[in-house]
Specification:
It comes from Nocardiopsis mangrovi. The chain has 207 residues and is mainly alpha-helical. It has two domains: 102 residues, no CATH class; 105 residues. The protein has six helices and four strands, in the order E-H-H-E-H-E-H-H-E-H. The protein is globular, with a radius of gyration of 19 Å.
Length: 207
């Protein structure tokens, strides 16, 4: 008998299209799972961009995040979560293979950095992994929203991202601080560029 049977809880995450998971005595942290599944949902719906999209690199990030899920008291059933994440990551890889590589640059412009390709080493003392994932997801989503036609002021600014990166807590077994900081620099450059392009486009539309 598995450990989940005596304390099986109701199936959660009942929003349309999202997988649902039972709760067990010891399972995956529900907030971590929800954040990961939401990111994969957005990536699969958009087909590109977002925090987890853009093919094999995005699937690799999602797989790394799945491997870092914490086991806590009264969490999501681990077997159910593992099965659902494996299916979603496989779908992401299949969609990327069918659609080809994502666009690397705007016509006539410099190549965009691959914001889905973040991969950080784990060191003895590094940035808190959960806090890094939250920060990067917000920053990448802000860039993609602006490029898709959203408002420049809707997300964090480059200065705010840098400030929040500098304030990330340092913990035992965290992400390499130099690697995270370098990626945030790329993210800030992309955010500024997306904002400049959006403002230039808005200015031409008002002429």
């Amino acid at each position: 008998m598995s450990e989940s049977s005596p304390l099986s809880g109701p199936l959660l995450r009942s929003s349309p299209g999202s997988p649902t998971f039972g709760t067990t005595r010891r399972g995956y942290d529900r907030r971590q799972v929800d954040r990961l599944v939401d990111g994969l949902d957005r990536a699969l719906s958009a087909g590109r961009g977002t925090a987890w999209a853009d093919g094999a690199s995005g699937a690799g990030r999602a797989r790394a995040a799945a491997g870092a899920l914490r086991v806590v008291w009264r969490g999501y059933d681990r077997a159910q979560v593992d099965s659902a994440l494996a299916r979603m990551i496989a779908e992401l890889e299949s969609a990327a293979a069918a659609g080809g590589a994502s666009e690397a640059a705007e016509p006539g412009g410099e190549p965009w950095p691959d914001l889905s390709a973040a991969s950080f080493g784990v060191v003895m003392f590094g940035f808190d992994r959960n806090e890094v994932e939250i920060l990067l997801a917000e920053g990448v989503d802000a860039v993609e929203a602006i490029r898709a036609g959203g408002r420049v002021a809707a997300g964090p600014t480059a200065a705010e991202l840098r400030e929040r990166c500098a304030d990330l807590p340092v913990v035992l077994r965290g992400f390499d601080r130099g690697q995270v900081t370098a990626f945030v620099d790329d993210l800030c450059w992309a955010l500024k560029r997306a904002g400049d392009m959006r403002r230039a486009s808005d200015g031409q539309g008002r002429r």
